[in-house]
Write a structure and sequence with these properties.
Elements lengths: L4 E4 L1 H17 L2 H16 L9 E2 L7 E6 L3 E8 L4 E9 L4 H5 L12
Parallel strand pairs: 1-5
Antiparallel strand pairs: 2-3, 3-4, 4-5
Helix pairs in contact: 1-2
């Protein structure tokens, strides 16, 4: 079985920090640490079965998503040639990952949508 390296894009790292701060403010730093650590562990599990997430080619080519505890979406892409999984974002509580990760419509001279 192929083993992939799991890397976090800067945006995903920022998402985790923001989620930690949000949870810590509402509960406690310990709860926030446990929750964000569990998300990181979920991401690291993609090293052995990266294709398990649902493909979302309609949002962005190569995009796949999986969930953590039903409230958090983990968006990632698999780079088979490089043998890595790139975690692109972590979206909690209904944040619109499609808008955040979708490619802007550049068919016109207008600003991106």
């Amino acid at each position: 079985m192929k083993h992939y390296a799991v890397v976090f894009a800067p945006e995903a790292q920022d998402d985790l920090l923001e989620l930690y701060a949000w949870i810590a403010e509402r509960t406690s730093p310990a709860v926030a640490q446990r929750y964000t650590d569990a998300i990181v562990e979920q991401c690291e599990r993609l090293a052995t079965l990266p294709q398990r997430g649902a493909p979302r080619e309609d949002v962005r080519p190569g995009l796949r998503i999986t969930h953590y505890r039903g409230r958090t979406v983990i968006a990632y892409a698999v780079d088979d040639d490089a043998g890595r999984v790139v975690v692109l974002g972590v979206f909690h509580g209904g944040r619109d990952y499609g808008r955040a990760l979708g490619q802007p419509d550049m068919d016109s001279d207008d600003e991106p949508n």
